[in-house]
Structure to design on (138 residues):
């Protein structure tokens, strides 16, 4: 009988601890072909995500996969992260949490699609993105 990793249980426990203390839980994730995240926010093969209740919807922290919906640039996106790719979970307010060893997979660092590969290699545009604005009508 094989033993199940303690990592998903520790992630859930620290997430609950953050929520109970009123802290904002963040996770640091190593991005590879099995990780579904917005590639434009990936830096040096990693991304840090806020997984607090106010930032995500339908959070499911399973033994193998963490899934949720989050908004990036005003657009809702489905996020899927293998538990083995989580490098750390910590509270934003005080940095308390836990780091984990993340081993390189056979496919490590490879984008899931050609489109993602292109987005990852394209330099950012020179002009900042325009933000939507509201006009008050009296």
């Amino acid at each position: 009988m094989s033993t199940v990793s303690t990592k998903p249980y520790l992630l859930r426990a620290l997430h609950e601890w953050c929520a109970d203390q009123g802290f904002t839980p963040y996770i640091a994730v190593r991005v590879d072909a099995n990780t579904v995240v917005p590639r434009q926010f990936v830096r040096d093969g990693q991304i840090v995500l806020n997984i607090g209740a106010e930032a995500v919807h339908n959070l499911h922290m399973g033994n193998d996969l963490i899934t949720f919906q989050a908004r990036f640039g005003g657009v809702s996106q489905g996020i899927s992260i293998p538990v083995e790719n989580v490098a750390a979970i910590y509270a934003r307010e005080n940095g308390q949490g836990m780091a984990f060893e993340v081993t390189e997979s056979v496919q490590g660092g490879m984008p899931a699609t050609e489109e993602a590969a292109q987005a990852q290699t394209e330099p950012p545009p020179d002009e900042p993105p325009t933000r939507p604005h509201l006009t008050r009508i009296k």
User: Anything to note?
Assistant: Strands lie at 25-30, 46-50, 56-61, 65-72, 75-82, 86-91, 97-99. Residues 106-123 have pLDDT under 50 and may be disordered.
